[in-house]
TrEMBL record:
It comes from Candidatus Caccovicinus merdipullorum. Residues 26-140 form the YbaK/aminoacyl-tRNA synthetase-associated domain. GO terms for molecular function: aminoacyl-tRNA deacylase activity. It comes from the Bacteria. This is YbaK/EbsC family protein. InterPro entries: YbaK/aa-tRNA-synt-asso_dom_sf, YbaK/aa-tRNA-synth-assoc-dom. It holds the Pfam family tRNA_edit.
Amino acid sequence: MSFEKAKAYLDKKGLGERVQTFEVSSATVELAAKAVGCEPERIAKTLSFLVDGKAVLILAAGDAKVDNHKYKETFHTKAKMLSPDQVTELVGHQIGGVCPFGVNEGVEVYLDESLKRFPVVYPACGSPNSAVKLTVPELESCSGYLSWVDVCKGWQPV
């Protein structure tokens, strides 16, 4: 059901035809990159956190890792990832397919600076065997993001 909800959301935005489904898993950055046929850093992974009792999603490049100090400076709390059950309950998608499309009401979405170096990125689409090809401006327009943040480390500019 998560896939259908995310796909319907993207259909309303005029981007549903970009959604790809695979015969293989795309549940991790490495698997998604292989399924899509791109470099792992171009996968827009969605990280799920709990902040003040609500779900916060941060989309980051596949090669980026959360920097706890930057995260705490931005969100004024320690980074606490959601458990798989919390992801399903609070976000509306399951681990491996979490994306900002068709999420539950009240979920906050942020985009990490690590994504800005690519013209095209590939976030999941609600299932562990899907992705959608989007330009960064398209990701901005359809993700419902609140702002760009700089909370990751480990990535290199291109």
